[in-house]
């Protein structure tokens, strides 16, 4: 069928959908669902025979708009906050799971680069962490308390400051997705290389176990959440660079919304990590080893389940 004939045959139906979307005509939820199904069929046909046509872009827009209308008018019995974390965020995490997997691979590759760089360049740790921090840590190691840096400041002040700073970094990593992913990539690179160099530094000084017991108490959730935040930035990047059948502006809007929602899902974990760093990490050297390991593996298990396993389970329903 020629495109002109296809448009002529379905024009009235599409105009009716526009009237519904513009609230000029009221229809029942069942009728709206029928329109959605018919539009999906039209979109599928158009994508097959006119993939680069404005008709395909137009139908894609109509389908997304009527879907959102159905989604928004769907009755939600549960608390909106619970609904977001139980259904909405996991759905988006599942949708963009490949980007999240890519972000983890990229991040830990950069961690490896940080370790290798610190191993073969004695000055690399100072370049990455700064002379002041390295000298302070060396002094703490000599005093027999390598993790003393986590004992400075008040508990509540440290928690609030650390949490705000981590969330700011996460939002910046997301927003930098508009730079075609260049700055998001750099944020992942800088944080991961710093982590790798930092851990190797403690290995070299013979206090690696002490560093693991302290850093990963809060780091399990904090670092995991940073990776998810960079993935949210790459979701935005993908929407800009690869709009598919959407217009670039519409694709940007969708990518921004979905990336932001994935990012917001990390906020509670940043808060928990901040509380642990402010109140618990300073006790790492004195707490029982079993408790230390329980907190590390417990927090890691919770956030891993939520972002990697629960979305898969949710998608099967």
UniProtKB/TrEMBL annotation:
Organism ancestry: Bacteria, Pseudomonadati, Bacteroidota, Flavobacteriia, Flavobacteriales
PANTHER family: SLR1478 PROTEIN (PTHR35337)
InterPro entries documented for this protein: SpoIIM-like
Full protein name: Membrane protein
Domain of life: Bacteria
Residues that span the membrane, as ranges: 99-120, 182-203, 215-241, 262-281, 287-308
Organism: Capnocytophaga catalasegens
Any Pfam family the entry gives: SpoIIM
UniProt keyword terms in alphabetical order: Membrane, Transmembrane, Transmembrane helix
């Amino acid at each position: 069928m020629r495109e002109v004939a296809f448009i002529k045959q379905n024009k009235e139906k599409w105009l009716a959908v526009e009237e519904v979307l513009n609230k000029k005509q009221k229809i029942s939820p069942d009728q709206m669902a029928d329109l959605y199904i018919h539009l999906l069929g039209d979109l599928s046909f158009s994508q097959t025979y006119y993939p680069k046509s404005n008709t395909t872009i137009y139908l894609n827009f109509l389908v997304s708009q009527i879907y959102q209308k159905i989604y928004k008018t769907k009755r939600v019995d549960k608390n909106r906050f619970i609904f977001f974390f139980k259904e909405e965020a996991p759905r988006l995490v599942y949708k963009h799971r490949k980007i999240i997997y890519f972000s983890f691979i990229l991040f830990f590759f950069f961690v490896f680069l940080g370790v290798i760089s610190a191993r073969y360049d004695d000055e690399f740790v100072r370049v990455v962490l700064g002379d002041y921090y390295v000298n302070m840590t060396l002094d703490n190691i000599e005093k027999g308390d390598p993790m003393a840096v986590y004992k400075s400041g008040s508990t509540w002040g440290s928690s609030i400051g650390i949490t705000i700073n981590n969330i700011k970094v996460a939002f910046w990593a997301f927003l930098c997705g508009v730079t075609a992913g260049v700055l998001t990539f750099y944020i992942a690179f800088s944080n991961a290389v710093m982590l790798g160099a930092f851990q190797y530094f403690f290995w070299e000084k013979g206090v690696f176990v002490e560093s693991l017991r302290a850093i990963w108490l809060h780091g399990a959730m904090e670092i995991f959440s940073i990776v998810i935040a960079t993935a949210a930035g790459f979701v935005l990047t993908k929407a800009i660079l690869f709009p598919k059948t959407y217009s670039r502006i519409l694709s940007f809007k969708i990518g921004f919304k979905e990336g932001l929602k994935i990012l917001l899902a990390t906020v509670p974990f940043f808060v928990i990590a901040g509380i642990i760093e402010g109140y618990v990490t300073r006790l790492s050297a004195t707490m029982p080893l079993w408790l230390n390991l329980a907190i590390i593996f417990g927090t890691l298990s919770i956030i891993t389940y939520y972002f990697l396993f629960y979305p898969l389970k949710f998608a099967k329903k």
